[in-house]
Amino acid sequence: MKTFINGLSLILPTALVLYLLVWILKMTEHFFGDLILLVLPKEYYITGLGFVAGIAIVFFVGLLLKLWIVQKLRDFFESIIDKTPLVNTLYGAIKDFFNFFSNLKNKENNIVVLVDTHWIDSKIMGFITSEDLKRFDFLDMEEPVVVYFQLSYQIGGYSLFIPKKNITLIDMKTEEALGFVMTAGISSSKKSEDK
Question: Which residues cross the membrane (predicted)?
């Protein structure tokens, strides 16, 4: 039985990752392939051209965003979205999600913390996301910071205002800490077993 579970523990995650990659490839190929077929005759179309076009367009947009005029157009577009109910919430949430995780991985030190939870004599791992809280001066707290707590095996978490005296900075890379939290410590246990 243990041998079967070991095999399943390798096959299942690999199959899920491959399925997700294939799904992304198919969606990208279908979407951009249809756009290409608007200007290119069907007999000249090669499977995979849509995916290559998708990668090229994303890269090109990334390059364009370095231009001042494009940044101004993006700001104008986002200002319209900000005034549109529901759309602004969805757009903002997706944008913030990507920005948060891309910024999180770039920060290596002074962000991973343990927060004291005195009521059950324990600590919870989190990430400092904001220390400049001047607009929250009304909080009845001594030196508050915002700490984000990632939920294990989920896309999401929650943020709390916490006094600095209740947190302890730990010497751990952000990416390593994020992996630890998202897998509920299992990824760290596996590394220890492998050694």
Answer: 7-25, 45-69
Residue found under tokens 């290559």? 52
Whole-model pTM over 0.85:
no
What gap in Å lies between CA 170 and CA 183, rounded to an integer? 19
Which amino acid makes up residue 181?
Answer: V
- Rounded CA-CA distance 183/33 in Å is 37
Question: What digits encode the pLDDT tens for the residues 127-179?
Answer: 888 887 878 878 888 888 889 888 887 777 888 898 888 888 888 887 788 88
Cβ–Cβ under 8 Å, residues 115 and 146: no
pLDDT 10s digits, 49-104: 888 888 888 888 888 888 888 888 888 888 888 888 887 887 877 777 676 666 65
47 and 141 assigned to the same domain:
no
* 16 and 81 both lie in a single domain: yes
Cβ atoms < 10 Å from Cβ of 162: 20
Confirm if 149 and 124 have CB atoms less than 8 A apart. Answer: yes
Same domain for 95 and 6?
yes
